[in-house]
Amino acid sequence: EAMRYKVHIDGVSPDARGEIENAITVVPNFPRPGLVFKDLSAVLGSPLAFKTVIDGLVARYQSKGVTAVVGIECRGYCFAAPVALGLKVPFVPFRKPGKLPCKSVGVDFNLGAGGKSACFGKDRLEMREDGLQAGSRVLIIDDMLGTGATLVGACELVEKVNAEVVECACIVDLSGLNGRERVTKPVFVLIEEEDGNNIDAQEVQGDMRSAVSGVSGSRRHVSWTTECCMLLAKMGVVTCCGHVICSLLQRQETARTTRRS
User: Fold this and answer.
1) In this predicted model, what pLDDT tens digit does every residue of 17-41 receive, in sequence order?
2) Of 239, 249, 220, residue with least CA distance to 33
3) How distant, in Å, are the alpha carbons of 2, 8, 201, 212, 251 from that of 231?
4) First CA to last CA distance, the chain
C-alpha cells in the first residue's frame, strides 16, 4: 500500500502536489536490512516538485522577519540554500565536527531515541565563528525530523551566539519518533504522513519486549538487532534508532544478569 501524505503548501496545484507525493521514495531494507528510508532524491530531481517545495517555504517565511537561514549538514543544505536565496538573506551551513578549516564555534548535544527517551551518546555541530550575528532571526532547515536531537543542537548553537530561532522547518518527518516533543522551538513539517500510516507506539514497544523475551543464549544480541530493527521499520525509523533501542535493551539485560549473580 502506498504511503499517504499531507502537503502543507497553500495554493499548490493538484499537479504539483501529486508530483511531490509521488517523488518521495520509500526504500525498504536501507541502509540495512529491516529498515525503511524516505528518499527525497526524486524531489530534487523533479523541477516542479523541488520548485514547489522551495516556493512553499519561502512563502511561509517571507513575512516572519527571518534574517538568516541555517542548513544542517548535509541534506539540509539542498533546501536551506535556495530558501535563503528566495528570502534574500545569508545562508549559514552548520557542519559536522572537524570540517571547518577556519576558526569556529560549536556545541555538543545529546543523542536519544526520540521523545523523552534516555540519552545514549553525543554529537556536535559547528559553524564559522562569524557565521551568525548577535540578534539574527534564524530559520533552521533540515530534510528530515527524526528524534529531534540534531535540531535541538542546532537551536543551542544559534542561541550560543545570541541569535534567535524563528522556527525549525523540515521537509518530512519519521513517524513514531516524536521528535517534536524534544524540540522546544516551533517546528514546521512541510510533508507529513497521514494518520493512518502510523503504528501505535505502545503496540510496538510490547512487540519489542516479546521479541526480546523469546530469545536466549548466544543468539540474543543478534536477534535483538534483527527483531527490533524490523519492528522499527514499521514506523519508518532510520538505522541508528534500531541500534539505539537494541543497545538500551542490552544494557537492561546486563544489569538484570549482574543483579542475579
Assistant:
1) 999 999 998 887 765 565 467 889 9
2) 239
3) 19, 29, 11, 12, 19
4) 49
**What does pTM read for this prediction?**
0.74
Burial class (CB in 10 A: 0-12, 13-18, 19+), 136: buried
pLDDT in tens, 203-241: 444 444 444 444 444 444 444 444 554 454 444 444 444
pLDDT at 124: 96
Q: What SS3 state is found at 101?
A: coil
**What length is written for the chain?**
261
Amino acid at 228: C
User: What grid cell was written down for 210?
Assistant: 516479546
Q: H or E segment at 149?
A: helix 149-160
Instruction: Decide if 228 contacts 242 (C-beta within 8 A).
Output: yes
**C-alpha cell recorded at residue 123:** 554529537
Amino acid letter at 112? G
Q: Would you say 120 and 113 are in contact if contact means Cβ atoms under 8 Å apart?
A: yes
DSSP readout, 53-71?
HHHHHHHHHTTTT--EEEE
SS3 label, residue 243: helix
Distance CA 254, CA 246 (A): 12
Q: What is the 3-state secondary structure (H, E, C) of 190-240?
A: EEEECHHHCCCHHHHHHHHHHHHHCCCHHHHHHHHHHHHHHHHHCCCCCHH
